[in-house]
Structure to design on (95 residues):
């Protein structure tokens, strides 16, 4: 599993999810949770970071699931957990 996690398609979605989560947390820390009339730069950045993961995860699944199914499934589960963690504050805070 660790050998697949060292591949760019293995760790990049995790990095993007952490960056998306950090974007939300920094925005909340600086500006609070007040509603804005328009989506700001933080919202657009979060959307881009989350959307950028989709083709990377798809490529990872297409390449590694047939070759080594068990480790690839474990890493895909990590990708899913990281994406859910990055989405949670957005949905819980109602952004």
């Amino acid at each position: 599993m660790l050998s697949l996690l060292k591949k760019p398609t293995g760790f990049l979605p995790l990095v993007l999810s952490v960056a998306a989560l950090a974007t939300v947390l920094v925005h909340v820390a600086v500006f609070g949770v007040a509603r804005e009339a328009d989506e700001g730069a933080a919202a657009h950045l979060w959307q881009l970071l989350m959307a950028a993961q989709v083709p990377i995860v798809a490529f990872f699944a297409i390449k590694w699931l047939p070759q080594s199914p068990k480790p690839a499934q474990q890493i895909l589960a990590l990708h899913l957990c990281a994406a859910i963690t990055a989405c949670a504050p957005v949905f819980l805070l109602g952004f």
